[in-house]
Write a structure and sequence with these properties.
With 188 residues, this protein is mainly alpha-helical. It folds into two domains: 63 residues, Tetratricopeptide repeat domain (Serine Threonine Protein Phosphatase 5, Tetratricopeptide repeat, Alpha Horseshoe); 84 residues, Tetratricopeptide repeat domain (Serine Threonine Protein Phosphatase 5, Tetratricopeptide repeat, Alpha Horseshoe), CATH 1.25.40.10. 76% of the residues lie in helices and 0% in strands. The protein contains nine helices and no strands. The longest helix is centred in the first third of the chain and has 47 residues. The protein is globular, with a radius of gyration of 23 Å.
């Protein structure tokens, strides 16, 4: 009987602890969201004033606090691109991908960066493994990969990607057009 009471008490403590942890996690998330909103508003003020170094510094801090925030990583990358710091821009995108391996679109910024730099052969290294996400992956990830294969003359790979893209995003007419053009190019 003593064992049963001890077990029930321990189970109760465990459940209470889990609930308390869940409540604390929710509170922390609220604090982070409030801080992020305030920082974004301040970034807008600094942007209008042309204080780009301060914005970049703040965006770096924001990304340290929440490495999963796509908008923050994207904004920091854009600021680095706008101030002609391509090496740092690239490192933001690589780090975002490495920090968020299970986020379907984690490679989108990096693939766009590589596409803009005409480094087409590098894009499959980052996007091919992410095809497993299917419809959860943004259509632009498929576009970057498909167009890279087209640019490299790898038509069969391009067709495979366009077909996967259409299966994942059947409402996207542009993907269907790319698939059909690639089929024509391959003679069928």
């Amino acid at each position: 009987m003593k064992f049963v009471l001890t077990s029930v008490f321990a189970l109760g403590l465990g459940l209470a602890s889990a609930q308390a942890t869940s409540e604390r996690d929710a509170q922390v998330a609220q604090v982070i969201q409030a801080a992020t909103s305030r920082q974004e508003a301040q970034n807008d003020v600094w942007f209008r004033g042309g204080d780009f170094p301060r914005i970049k510094q703040n965006l770096r801090l924001m990304l340290e606090v929440d490495p999963t925030n796509y908008e923050t990583a994207s904004s920091l990358g854009w600021m680095l691109k706008s101030t002609e710091q391509p090496g740092e821009e690239w490192s933001v995108y690589v780090r975002y991908l490495n920090d968020n391996p299970e986020y379907p679109d984690a490679a989108m910024m990096l693939s766009q960066y590589l596409f803009d730099k005409k480094q087409y052969a590098s894009i499959p290294l980052y996007i091919e493994p992410r095809l497993k996400f299917g419809a959860r992956m943004h259509a632009n990830c498929y576009r970057n990969l498909g167009h890279s294969y087209v640019r490299m003359g790898m038509w069969r790979d391009a067709l495979r990607v366009w077909e996967a893209a259409v299966a994942a995003h059947p409402e996207d007419a542009a993907l269907k057009l790319q698939r059909d053009r690639t089929k024509e190019r391959l003679g069928g």
